[in-house]
Amino acid sequence: MLTKGATAGALLVVDDEPHVLDAIKDLLEDDYTVFTKTSPKNALEFLASGPTVSAIISDQRMPEMDGDEFLARARQISKASRILITGYADLRAVIRAINEGQIFGYISKPWNSAQLGVTVHKAVEYFEMSRELAQAQALLRSLMDSLPDAVFFKAADHRFLRVNRPMAALLGIGDPAQAAGNTAAAFWPAPRAREIEEEEREIARTGEPLVDRLERFESGDGADRWFSKTVAPAFDEQGRIARFTGVARDVTERERSRQALLESEKRFRTLYNSTPVMMHSANRDGLLSSVNDYWCEVLGYAREEVLGRRSMDFMTDVSRRRFETSVRPEFLRLGEVKGVECQFVAKDGRVVDTLLSAVAERGEDGSPAQALAVMIDVTEKKALQSQLLQAQKMEAIGHLTGGIAHDFNNLLTVVLGNLDLLTDSLPRASRFAEWAEQASRAATRGAELTHRLLAFSRQQVLEPTTIDLNDAIASLTGMISRTLGERIEVRTDLAADLWLARVDPAQLESAVINLCVNARDAMERGGTLSIETANAVLDGEYVRRHADVAAGDYIRLTVKDTGSGIPPAIMDRIFEPFFTTKGEGKGTGLGLSMVYGFVKQSGGHVDVHSEVGKGTSIQLLFPRLHGAGLAVDDERARGIAPRGMETILVVEDQDDVRAIAVRMLESLGYKVLTASHGPEALGVLEGGAGIDLLFTDMVMPGPMTGLELAQKARSLRPGLRVLFTSGYTNAATYAGRDRLEGTEWITKPYMRRHLAERVRKALDA
Predict the structure, then answer these.
(1) Which residues of 721-737 are buried (b: 16+ CB within 10 A; e: fewer)?
(2) What is the pLDDT of residues 458-498, one digit of tens each?
């Protein structure tokens, strides 16, 4: 029997002889809760569903299975200590089982009551200690994983013993247990791994920890990171290195900020010494102590002519009086002035308009001891501000119109698709068919308007090819002459050896025709329209005056007229959508906005020169394409809308748009499956259905775009054909489609005939 106060617990005793069970229960039930079973199978079921027991006592020889087998199976269910009762077992085998951890102990028959009690008591204590140890280890793992810093423990041979989750992420593994037994060489390049082991050997040699060492290295996810690392040694009783404990704190953002500050200070020093802006320093008395080279260059003085004089000595009389009466007192009071307009007089008598800002460095008495002043040309700044404000306004209008056009294109897809199907189902001679065709034409005109809105907002899908602008203009000349009428003389001046450009031919033709029609409207009494091409090199001076274009080689396409010209008051608004100077009902105001959006989306620039009463010149500049030949047009001949029998998966989040796409495809003979978003479509693909074409919207709500869906679908089904669609797209959405081979594109809204051709082209590619 156990002594009073022994650790309480639950026991399971298994023996096929009831009197043995009763004897053991009588012996132990004063100290433990004792459960008994005569069948090993019943005992296993009890362990699987019953209360937790601390120890299992089993007879060795039982009819259903022997004690070894029962305890082995029990081990898979319960972590309780296992005790074997035997009167026949090979003691050497039993001792070996104890040493190997298969059982905790054994009791020989006939047993000694005291020996039985002690063995059970130790088994229960061992179980409780093991459970507490497991809980402590779980708590330690939880604490380690909750730390934001990377923590690791290593053995003396540099192998990881344990790491927390941040350290596992740093190593590039998902499970911290994967690190155990590996050295740094398993996760990092050999040079880096050797450095780490050298550090640890030095720590072991000196016994001194490595504290807050800043290190830069590539982590397991491929990113370049900065860490502050501390590694401390631990020694055994003989003074030998036993293990290493390390903590690494991610200080990437702090280090980047520090480096950015150093770089900023360096740039400031460089800027002060070499900036092309007038700068000077003045002492407490207002006398110039230094001027930069640009200050001397602009005003034409040598440095020795100005040092020691007051800056006010070089101002006009008006600026000097204003500076003395208001600017200087404010500067002495506040220690700074900003944006003060001043006029300086150059050595040759020229008046230079500047915008002056100054800041003071105060002395011990709080008064300005030194001043640094910067002067820039006011005219240039105002011009740049005007360009920036105009660009921001156009960008804001572009976002608004692009969003409207996107939603409207979805609506028009449903309207045009249903009208198309309705027209096919009605007798040709019926008035209902005529009404449907009229509605279809009106919806098509609406689609043209949204197309122009998308062009302005730079969200249309371009299909650029390599072209010679001279060839494009030559092919348009006849049509332009017929369109403008006899009162307008059309002249062309096309440069020889014109560089090639990469633009959308259809959009280019539309832009040129729009410019020509606008020119015709500006020449009500007739005149001359000139179309010119030339190679152009935009230098730094041009770019400085036009903030929205980069320097480089361009092809210039110019459309000039001898019309009424554009008044300066409305010059900044001519590219705004819906703005027009024409009479009511004579224009949508989208022509020039479409031209502007197309050119900007093509990476180009638009420059306008106009004089009231003398005419207007509009220049379209397209980037030069280097190292490419002319594209070959292999457009398919158009005939009856092609049909097919393949299976198509349609992915579209808009219910109405998805429904009309399905109806149109089914009317063409195709079998159609549907999904409303990317994850649902992947489920269809994973289901094993035979699918020949994925027809997906590019922009969908949720976690997956059409492009991402296509990429994942290709990983499931290599070679799957893909047809994309969208009411609009931006650069981020469209980027990457060209790298996905075997794809086609169709723009919303689409008619059944257009859809049939694109589907067939995608399937037959």
Answers:
(1) bbbbbbbbbbeebbeeb
(2) 445 566 788 888 888 888 887 788 778 888 888 989 998 89
Pick the CATH number of 147-255 from 3.10.310.10, 3.30.450.20, 3.40.390.30, 3.40.50.2300: 3.30.450.20
418-454 residues labelled b (16+ CB within 10 A) or e (exposed): bbbbbbeebeeeeeebeebeebbeebeebbebbbbbb
Q: What angle do CA 620, 527, 498 make, to 5 degrees?
A: 30
Q: CATH assignment of 647-764?
A: 3.40.50.2300
Query: Hey, CA dihedral for 168, 174, 177, 183, is it positive or negative?
Result: negative
Dihedral, CA of residue 127, residue 133, residue 139 and residue 141, to nearest 10? -120
Let me know: does 6 contact 121? Beta carbons within 8 Å.
yes
Question: How is domain 465-623 classified at the CATH fold level?
Answer: Heat Shock Protein 90 (3.30.565)
- Name the strands in the sheet holding 55-59, side by side, starting at the edge strand that comes first in the sequence: 33-37, 10-14, 55-59, 81-86, 105-108
pLDDT digits (tens, 9 = 90+) for 20-75: 888 888 888 888 889 998 899 998 889 888 788 988 888 878 888 887 888 888 88
Q: Which residue spans within 566-656 are E strands per DSSP?
A: 605-611, 615-623, 647-651
CA dist., res. 213 & res. 195, Å (int): 13
* Rounded Cα–Cα distance for residues 144 and 307 (Å): 66
How do 527-538 and 552-561 pair as beta strands? Answer: antiparallel
What string of DSSP letters covers 484-534?
H-TTEEEEEEEPTTPPPEEE-HHHHHHHHHHHHHHHHHH-TT-EEEEEEEE
Give CA–CA dist 291/311, Å, rounded.
10
**Residues linked to residue 374 through DSSP beta bridges, in sequence order:** 279, 357
Q: Say what the pTM is.
A: 0.35
* Rounded alpha-carbon distances, angstroms, from residue 326 to 366, 371, 372: 20, 17, 18
